[in-house]
Amino acid sequence: MGYGKCELGKADALIIRGSALNFLENQHGQFKQLDLLVEAGRKADTLINYLCVEESYFTLLEPSQALQLHGRAPAQSERTIILGRVSSKEIHVTTTTSFPVHALLETCSMTAELNFATWNKVYSLFPAATLARHKTYPLRELDDDFGIRLAEFAHQGWTTRDMLWLKLAAQKPCGIGSRRVGDAYSVSIAVTPHIDSADTTPDFVIEHAAFDVLVGETTVAKGKRRSAPQTKCSEMSIYVRKLESLALRHHFTVGQSNSGSWSNFANERLQRWTKIELLKIPRRTRGFDVHGFSIPTGSTFRRPKSWDYADDQLPTWYKNFQEVRIEEEEYSCEKTHALW
């Protein structure tokens, strides 16, 4: 790719699918096109404009034509624009209504898809299966959309024999349960020296995108909004949703809100942080009382320029959460041995 990586960073775009996997597998030119995932709106428009104006790409297919080409119904949250250039691979720019990492986790069909590159790092979320063993596990039920993905990966040497079924496999995959991008089960490779820039999302935001890898058919209690998985899968599935808080500037994700979960741990601290920031604003200015922890989470409240965001605290809180969980597990083991 001839265009600057910084343009990807400014757009918070991800390189996904075969393009990212090609890099991790040290192949050369095996992927059919370059797939980019970017949030719809200003960032997507700026990136596409850069590719067309500065890099001489031109539009081959608009979103409706691209969907017709692939023979599938349009997804409400995604649209794909296909760009071309003489003697270059096509670029498929998929725009999504959510933060790209969130969208990727929410829509992936199999574990081999969970490899992606930012402007300065490449990540693999199931490297033991994908890279070490050249195997993939399904994350949703088989359908026509899944078949399209399988056909794309077949171009890079992924065949039916590389698909493992959880119920039939002799070896369970590493990384089931509560996860985050950049955890001990992941691999991350720096491809560009780190540069702090106000134009790009910090690495720790990407690397603290949390999610749950669930085994077997999943159910969610009534009354609770559910994000991914969009469909039940009798094998494995990904559950992910946005971490909503006025205390956050960037888009973070979490898994389920079970007792002792990272979601509950983070929300408890974010609620207190938000209350402190709200109390700094005069009652007449903010327009409502701050009672207990009934604090607004939506974007309707306009935060002042003096608002202190808690994003940089998430890595510290996550480390504390892990330490607390280890202590609780050790205490539980000691208590069990004492009963014996």
Strands of the widest sheet, in order across it, are 3-4-5-2-1-6-7-9
What would the principal axes of the Cα set say about the shape? Answer: globular
Largest pleated sheet: 8 strands, mixed
Our count of domains comes out at 2
Q: Tell me the β content.
A: 15-25%
In DSSP terms, counting alpha (H) and pi (I) runs of 4 or more, how many helices? Answer: 11
Multimerization state: single chain
Number of strands: 13
Low-confidence stretches: 67-76, 219-226
* Structural class based on helices, strands and sheet pairing: alpha+beta
Give the averaged pLDDT, no decimals.
85
* Straight-line distance between termini: 63 Å
What integer value in Å does the Rg equal?
A: 22 Å
Task: Please estimate the helix content.
Answer: 25-40%
Helix and strand element order: HEHEHEHEEHEEHHEEHEEEEHHH
Summarize the structure.
Helices cover 33% and strands 16% of the residues. The protein is built from eleven helices and 13 strands.
Structure overview:
By secondary structure, the chain is α+β, with helices and mostly antiparallel strands. Helix content is 33%, strand content 16%. The strands form three sheets. Strands 3-4-5-2-1-6-7-9 form an eight-stranded mixed β-sheet. β6 and β7 (121-124) form a beta hairpin. α1 (5-11) runs antiparallel to α3 (42-53). Residues 67-76 and 219-226 have low confidence and may be disordered.
Descriptive keywords:
8-stranded mixed sheet; alpha+beta; 3-stranded antiparallel sheet; single chain; 340 residues; 13 strands; 16% strand; 2 domains
